[in-house]
């Protein structure tokens, strides 16, 4: 991630002063100006002519002169100048544009950047360049903060990902990785749902085109607005999709591939979700809707501390199991 920021905003951004991991990034980016000519010479050899100036020229065209000299850039902490020249240029040589902020030239595509804007003009410029932006409410950014002092690196990375339709990493357990769904996951999701027993107690997927449109809306509205939803579960060891689990408001749901039943995966993932809800939402309780014929899920719910509330969802003939999560310690 490359962070673009101006002098005024930098003085208000908390990570500039307080994030120890960010201070050397900022310092190193500024110091790189002395090496920019050498880097620029190398770029001329490696990047196609039509890509060398694309983003730079757009920025120069749109930015007022008084702002142009006041923009700064921060690079990730592990991108030392030598590594930057050796690896990053080659990695992006085929499809990258070049940004110039002051004297610093950076061979990265707009999707790699986030701009901390200080006014609506900067936000509009960022939009025209397809660069994610964040700022205070008066700047008009979709992701706004009351004060730039509230910003941290994790939040900026999440905004950059959301703007560029890159799924968020939610967390991990001992054996699993949990992240948001992307549209490229649909083929693997159909394979998962086609396994024996997977749709005994849950609805199957729609036909592909309908499911595609449904998931587009889900990503935009559920993930984008609430910042939670039904996520995907992958094996750490292989990266294989093995299930879905997550929250739809304060309802918890899960499904695990049948070849992994009775091996503790559902317990592991559901405990993560309960802890996530406790730490990241205002929910006082979670609930699950469970068909009483689904004896494995009934056992799991009781194991996790859910109790049968005595209520039934008549539409799907499922019992409602509830758990208070604010008065319970972390699992």
TrEMBL record:
Keyword list, A-Z: Transferase
Does the keyword Hydrolase feature in the UniProt annotation? no
Q: Name one GO molecular function term.
A: acyltransferase activity, transferring groups other than amino-acyl groups
**SUPFAM superfamilies associated with the record:** Acyl-CoA N-acyltransferases (Nat)
Where in this chain does the record put each N-acetyltransferase domain?
176-326
Q: Which PANTHER family match?
A: GNAT FAMILY, PUTATIVE (AFU_ORTHOLOGUE AFUA_3G00765)-RELATED-RELATED, N-ACETYLTRANSFERASE DOMAIN-CONTAINING PROTEIN
What protein name applies here? N-acetyltransferase
Q: What taxonomic lineage is listed for the species of origin?
A: Bacteria, Bacillati, Bacillota, Clostridia, Lachnospirales
């Amino acid at each position: 991630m490359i962070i673009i920021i101006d002098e005024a905003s930098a003085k208000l951004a908390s990570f500039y002063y307080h994030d120890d991991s960010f201070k050397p990034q900022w310092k190193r980016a500024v110091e790189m100006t002395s090496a920019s000519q050498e880097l620029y010479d190398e770029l001329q050899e490696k990047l196609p002519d039509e890509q060398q100036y694309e983003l730079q020229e757009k920025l120069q065209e749109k930015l007022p002169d008084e702002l142009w000299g006041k923009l700064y850039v921060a690079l990730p902490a592990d991108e030392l100048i030598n590594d930057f020249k050796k690896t990053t240029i080659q990695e992006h040589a085929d499809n990258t544009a070049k940004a110039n902020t002051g004297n610093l030239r950076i061979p990265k595509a707009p999707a790699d950047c986030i701009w901390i804007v200080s006014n609506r003009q900067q936000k509009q410029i960022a939009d025209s360049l397809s660069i994610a932006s964040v700022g205070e409410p008066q700047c008009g950014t979709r992701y706004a903060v009351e004060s730039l002092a509230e910003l941290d690196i994790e939040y900026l990375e999440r905004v950059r990902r959301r703007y560029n339709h890159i799924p968020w990493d939610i967390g991990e357990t001992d054996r699993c990785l949990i992240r948001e769904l992307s549209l490229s996951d649909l083929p693997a999701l159909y394979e998962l749902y086609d396994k024996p027993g997977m749709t005994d107690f849950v609805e199957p997927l729609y036909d592909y085109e309908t499911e595609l449109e449904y998931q587009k809306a889900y990503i935009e509205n559920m993930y984008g607005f609430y910042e939670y939803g039904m996520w995907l579960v992958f094996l750490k060891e292989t990266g294989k999709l093995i299930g879905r689990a997550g929250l739809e408001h304060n309802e918890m749901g899960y499904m695990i591939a049948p070849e992994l039943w009775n091996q503790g995966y559902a317990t592991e993932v559901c405990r993560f979700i309960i802890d996530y809800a406790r730490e990241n939402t205002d929910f006082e309780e979670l609930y699950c809707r469970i068909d009483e014929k689904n004896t494995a899920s009934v056992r799991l719910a009781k194991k996790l501390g859910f109790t049968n509330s005595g209520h039934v969802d008549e539409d799907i003939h499922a019992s409602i199991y509830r758990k208070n999560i604010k008065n319970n310690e972390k699992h």
